[in-house]
């Protein structure tokens, strides 16, 4: 048996869009409408037979054919009248004997052996049209192809909604602070809707010879509606001012979300998370990091929301 390829009924005369529910194609009717009937029952926009006729200022339009912002009222009498018109399958000549009414046509189109439906993945780029029965086979056979189409789409969305940000922070008076010890705080900043702050510390109980930097989540204006714990990737970098390729970088991630510091901050007292031995005092003072008695700390944050973790 040769493969049946379904034929699409152009539901929408206006723009021939698949699945568009504009006016009915007049070829559905068993009897041609008289000029007066045609005038009464046609859409002023698509010129098909009114589907869900809406009364608007200058006549009638299908629900689908309303202009943006236009208000109408369903004309139930007209709708019933149209629904009762006798209809035949538009593929009678191809062998489908179905006859019924305009109102029952949609139902027929789902079981007809000739009327085609677009592949459910058409919005992902599959242009195949087949009868409902054949479509099941198509979906099985094209599983991998459909998956690839969807992956392409997801990759595109992922690039579009990538949520990244960070801070470039100049910390001044390095020599003095290194000798005196202590903590310095960056200004607060948002990455997406999450609010962060960075601490740079010159003294740490366990590693008295190192400087470190920690990332803190702060109480932000949008915390209520956000996903917690925060998951993401972090990069901290102390810039080597003479040779940026020799900068000190430290990367980490919170993909599993098990770090307390990234739970929703309650009273701004979440602990920080990061690296307590980012660089030794000697490195900072002797190498080319603290020219002009200041260093530049860059922190780069990439949020990976749940849906994205599930797809990568
Ligand atoms: Zn349309
Ligand atoms: Zn219309
Ligand atoms: Zn049919
Ligand atoms: Zn397909």
Automatic annotation (TrEMBL):
The record's annotation in InterPro entries points to: MATH/TRAF_dom, TRAF-like, Znf_RING/FYVE/PHD
Question: What keywords sit in the KW lines?
Answer: Receptor
One Pfam assignment: MATH_2
> What PROSITE patterns has UniProt attached to this entry?
MATH
Top-level taxon:
Eukaryota
Q: List, for all copies, the residue spans of the domain called MATH.
A: 164-301
Annotated PANTHER family: TNF RECEPTOR ASSOCIATED FACTOR (PTHR10131), TNF RECEPTOR-ASSOCIATED FACTOR 4 (PTHR10131:SF94)
Q: What is this protein called?
A: TNF receptor-associated factor 4
């Amino acid at each position: 048996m040769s493969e049946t390829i379904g034929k699409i009924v152009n539901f929408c005369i206006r723009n021939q869009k698949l699945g568009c529910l504009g006016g009915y194609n007049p070829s559905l009717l068993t009897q041609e409408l008289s000029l007066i009937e045609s005038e009464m029952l046609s859409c002023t926009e698509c010129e098909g037979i009114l589907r869900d006729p809406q009364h608007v200022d200058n006549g009638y339009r299908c629900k689908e054919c309303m202009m943006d912002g236009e208000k109408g009222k369903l004309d139930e009498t007209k709708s019933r009248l149209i629904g009762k018109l006798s209809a035949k399958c538009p593929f009678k000549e191809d062998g489908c004997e179905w006859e019924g009414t305009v109102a029952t046509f949609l139902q027929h189109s789902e079981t007809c052996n000739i009327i085609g439906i677009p592949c459910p993945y058409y919005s992902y780029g599959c242009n195949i049209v087949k009868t409902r029965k054949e479509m099941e086979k198509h979906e099985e056979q094209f599983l991998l192809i459909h998956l690839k189409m969807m992956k392409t789409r997801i990759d595109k969305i992922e690039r579009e909604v990538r949520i990244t940000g960070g801070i470039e922070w100049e910390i001044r008076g390095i020599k003095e602070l290194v000798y005196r010890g202590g903590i310095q705080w960056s200004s607060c900043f948002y990455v997406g809707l999450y609010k962060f702050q960075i601490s740079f510390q010159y003294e740490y109980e366990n590693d008295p010879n190192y400087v470190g930097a920690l990332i803190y989540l702060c109480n932000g204006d949008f915390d209520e509606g956000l996903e917690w714990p925060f998951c993401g990737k972090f990069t901290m970098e102390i810039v080597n001012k003479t040779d940026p390729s020799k900068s000190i970088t430290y990367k980490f991630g919170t993909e599993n979300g098990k770090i307390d510091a990234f739970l929703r901050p309650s009273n701004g007292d979440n602990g920080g998370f990061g690296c307590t031995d980012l660089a030794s005092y000697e490195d900072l003072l002797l190498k080319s990091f603290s020219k002009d008695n200041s260093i530049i700390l860059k922190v780069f944050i990439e949020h990976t929301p749940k849906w994205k973790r599930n797809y990568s």
